Amino acid sequence: MRVIVFGASGMVGHGALRASLRDDTVTEVLAVVRSPLPLTHAKLRQIVHTDFTDYTSLQDQLKGLDACFFCLGVSAVGRGEEEYTHITHDYTLAAARALQTASPELTFVYVSGEGTDSTGKSRQMWARVKGRTENELLAMPIEAYMFRPGYIQPVDGASSRTPLYRILYRATGALYPILRRTLPRYVTNTDAVGRAMLAIIRQNGAASAVLRNSDINRLASV
Q1: Handedness of CA 123, 126, 129, 135 (dihedral sign)
Q2: For residues 143 and 110, is the Cβ–Cβ distance under 8 A?
Q3: Number of domains within the chain
Q4: Which candidate, 144, 115, 140, 141, places its Cα nearest to that of 130?
Q5: Residue 183 belongs to a domain with what CATH number?
Q6: 141: buried, middle or exposed (CB in 10 Å: 19+, 13-18, 0-12)?
Q7: CA dist., res. 96 & res. 77, Å (int)
Q8: What is the pLDDT of residues 63-107, one digit of tens each?
Q9: What is the Cα–Cα distance from 151 to 147, expressed in whole angstroms?
Q10: Which position among 78, 103, 168, 184 has the lowest Cβ density within 10 Å, counted as fewest Cβ atoms?
């Protein structure tokens, strides 16, 4: 199995990348990055790319892929709707369209988030933008799954790029084992998210196109 990961330098993408490299069924992992990752592995091939709205130059490299784990994203804090939409929606759809052309049988897994609004009525700008992104992905002629995790604890060296979140994760790290046992519907970790993505590919799909924490944790245990 050949997979491609977007956002591997981020917290969730780190989990998807690590899980893919550890999985014996994965033969090659492509990581699309703005700058090289400080990581080498026999299965890893990094593609340095700067324009995430245009993949014309990469079409040949995108052929023959089985899965895409799209974890690229930013916090909405301090960003206007236009900028946030460009990164969250435009980048995602550009990648999905390029992959649909190059690898039409590929499965596309998009990391959205709990609270995402598919109706477009939410007062939260980020929820509307992610909802629109989900809707357009699901309308495409590709097999697509939306991950809507709630609280994600970083593990195995994963770290948020948002300073405020890093403080939060350090403060809650000791409590995570308790939270995972008592609130499995709302809590997961970066490793589980990555393993759940791979589980979908191995078992040829999931019962629902939209998966939340409880679904993610269940798939991660398969």
Answers
A1: negative
A2: no
A3: 1
A4: 115
A5: 3.40.50.720
A6: exposed
A7: 25
A8: 999 999 999 988 888 899 999 999 999 999 999 999 999 999 999
A9: 12
A10: 78
Please tell me the pTM assigned to this model: 0.90
CA atoms within 13 A on the CB side of 51: 7
In a 10 Å sphere around its CB, with 0-12 CB exposed, 13-18 middle and 19+ buried, how is residue 137 labelled? Answer: buried
Mean confidence (pLDDT) of the chain:
90
- For the chain, helix, strand, coil in percent to 5 are 45, 20, 40
Domain range holding 73?
A: 2-220
Return the structure tokens found at 160. 């948020």
What sections of the chain are H helices per DSSP?
A: 11-22, 81-85, 91-102, 125-139, 163-172, 176-182, 190-202, 213-220
